[in-house]
Each structure stands twice: as C-alpha cells, then as structure tokens.
Specification:
The protein has four helices and twelve strands. It has 241 residues and is α+β, with helices and mostly antiparallel strands.
Length: 241
C-alpha cells in the first residue's frame, strides 16, 4: 500500500539551482560518445539512489527505457522521449516518466523488460531502438527497484500511446536535461521525514492547428528527475586514470 501525495511538488520552494556546475559538453552527447562512455565507464557514484519509503508492499523489480532520439544532422538536437502517466494510475499518476514497468517472468533480462514496456506503453518498436547500457538501480518511495536502460532511438518511428497508461508523449532536448542550470533542488518535511528531490521544469512550445503558439510546462521531478541527475553524473565525471 502506498501513501498518496498530500502536496503539490510545484508549490514546494526551490532552495538551490545548480548554476555553478558544468553542463555536459555537446560533443559528449553524440551517439558515438555515449556508446564509448558505456563501453568504458568511469568510476562514479550515483547522486540519488533511494527515496524515503511511502509504501509497505514488497519491493518490485522494474526497468525503464531512457530513449534518446537522435535528432538533427549532427545529433545536436537529440531529445529524450518521456511520457505523462494517466491520471487514474495507482502509482505516480499524472507524473512525467520514462516508458517502463515491473519485470515479468517471461522477460529475458532488464533490457527486455524496458523494451517490452516501451512497446506496450507508447508503441515504440524495438527495431528503432539500440540499447547502449544501463545505470544503477534507483529505489522509489513506492518500493520499485528501477533499472534505467539507456538506448539510442532512430527517427522515423511511429508511436501509438496506450490510453490506459499514458496521457501524453513528448520529447525534451537532451542538452537541456544534461545542464544542471536547469536542475532545481527542493526539500520538504512530510510525514515525519525530510524529503529531497530534483525538478527539471521544461516549457514545451508547440504550434497549434491555427498557427497559434501553445506553451506547456512539463514538470519533471521525483524518480524521473533523480535518474536523469544520475545520468548527468555518469556523463560529466572525469574518467579514472
């Protein structure tokens, strides 16, 4: 059983924005550089590993796909594909998330879980996806032990979101997410525990059918922001010599 949130994370004050930390250089975000990083990873430590527990149920192994869509002639416009979970979901309803879910017995491994869930949730076919590595387990407050599976996605795919699970699908520039000037820190005393988390609000601009400009805030926070922060740490740390 999980305890629902009794606060709106958007309204919790920001106590720090990491303007003083370096962004991941654009050259390190190319497909070749990302594959090389996972082929020979540095010595590093995840910054966020476990959230305060709000659940009494048995821990559940899970995996998410972190799909990096290779956009632009030189991949300088590469993005991360994200979803907004349906409002009726039992956990993390309405939140921004990666495609993913719990491990099923028929899954060969965690990568298979992530690929299957991406297919089921948003219709992302495996033929467009190249897995290049994974990050350490991230433990959510709702007792999911989540392995982020990092993958490159070739453009040209067609999505078919499952309305039972997904309210919306969108993309956020990878360079935006890998720049800590866009990482905000929050903390709050809640149910006798001090909670700390990151948020990475992204203002998506779209042109409507009548030519109007529509702007939507994508409030990335919690587990999704924590895993992205760990990805940043993995990419920015200097390799051990």
């Amino acid at each position: 059983m999980s305890t629902p949130l009794s606060f709106d994370p958007r309204n919790v004050p920001v106590w720090r924005i990491d303007h003083d930390m370096p962004a991941v250089p654009s050259a390190h975000l190319s497909p070749q550089a990302l594959k090389a990083r996972f082929a020979k990873p540095p010595a590093w430590q995840p910054e966020v590993e476990r959230e305060p527990s709000v659940s009494t149920r048995t821990p559940t192994p899970a995996a998410v796909l972190v799909p990096i869509v290779m956009r632009g002639a030189d991949f300088a416009q590469s993005t991360v594909l994200l979803t907004q979970r349906a409002n009726h979901m039992s956990t993390h309803s309405g939140q921004i998330a990666f495609p993913g879910g719990k491990v099923d017995p028929q899954d060969a491994n965690l990568q298979a879980t992530a690929l299957r869930e991406a297919q089921e949730e948003v219709g992302l076919a495996a033929q467009h996806v190249q897995v290049i590595g994974q990050l350490p387990v991230y433990v959510t407050g709702t007792a999911f032990w989540v392995t982020p599976v990092i993958a490159l996605v070739s453009p040209g795919f067609e999505l078919a979101p499952n309305a039972d699970e997904v309210q919306d699908v969108f993309e956020v520039p990878l360079a935006f997410l890998m720049n800590p000037a866009n990482h905000r820190r929050h903390h709050l005393d809640w149910q006798g525990q001090q909670r700390h988390w990151f948020s990475m609000p992204y203002h998506e601009v779209r042109t409507g059918p009548q030519g109007q400009i529509d702007q939507t805030e994508r409030f990335i926070w919690g587990a999704t922001a924590g895993m992205l922060r760990n990805f940043y740490r993995f990419l920015v740390v200097n390799p051990a010599h």
